[in-house]
Design the sequence.
């Protein structure tokens, strides 16, 4: 079974630009979550999608948004990038149960200059 | 609000030593789930174990063992006879029944370095 795939692996953007990150979950997993990982803040929950609906949302500004498609693939968008958005963005998929473990992708390393 | 504390930021041991990683959690829910994940230098977090709040039975898997104590809100992880390949960042995480594992609260992680 293929794991969680995130693209691209690395991105360099300039302040003010926007960026879209992509995530393909494990086949059969309907839940996709996004996390931001930084040295100072650790792993912070962004949002979770299930069957194309946002089911949970973390405490991030509205510049961070996401969506999920009918095939469970998910995208995350960050608009008006700020230097502080530089981070490793991790996507995780899980099956439907609320006690299901998360299966993470390798992440997208975003650098904002 | 839920919270996970991993007080040990970094631990360094010599190969074959035993090491315990501490995890203390806070939650108001009576039904919750605890997880441990490993993040090796390659970056991908890997699920290690899940424990629900009604199952306080300790678990052993090879060199790994977990001690769950509701009385102290702790879910500690012990590696016996550590190896260099155990070097990684280890995260403890909590999810509540009211939400789901897709929204987990993670501790800040403990960086374990095992020296040969």
Sequence:
């Amino acid at each position: 079974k293929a794991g969680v795939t995130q693209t691209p692996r690395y991105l360099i953007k300039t302040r003010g630009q926007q960026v879209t990150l992509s995530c393909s979950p494990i086949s059969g997993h309907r839940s996709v979550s996004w996390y931001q990982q930084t040295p100072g803040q650790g792993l912070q929950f962004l949002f979770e999608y299930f069957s194309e609906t946002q089911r949970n949302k973390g405490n991030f500004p509205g510049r961070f948004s996401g969506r999920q498609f009918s095939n469970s693939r998910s995208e995350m968008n960050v608009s008006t990038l700020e230097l502080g958005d530089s981070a490793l963005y991790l996507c995780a998929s899980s099956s439907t149960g609320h006690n299901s473990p998360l299966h993470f992708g390798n992440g997208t390393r975003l650098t904002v200059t | 609000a839920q919270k996970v504390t991993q007080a040990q930021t970094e631990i360094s041991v010599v190969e074959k030593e035993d090491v315990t990683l501490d995890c203390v959690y806070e939650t108001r829910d009576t039904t919750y789930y605890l997880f441990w994940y490993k993040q090796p230098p390659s970056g991908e977090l890997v699920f290690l174990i899940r424990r629900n709040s009604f199952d306080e039975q300790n678990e052993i898997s090879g060199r790994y063992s977990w001690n769950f104590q509701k009385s102290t809100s702790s879910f500690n992880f012990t590696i016996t006879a550590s190896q260099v390949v155990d070097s990684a960042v280890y995260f403890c995480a909590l999810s509540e029944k009211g939400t789901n594992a897709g929204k987990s609260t993670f501790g800040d992680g403990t960086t374990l370095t095992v020296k040969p």
Remarks:
- Chain B touches chain A at residues 33, 35, 37, 42-47, 50, 52, 91, 93, 95, 97, 99-109 (CB under 8 Å).
- The first strand of chain B starts at residue 3 and ends at 5.
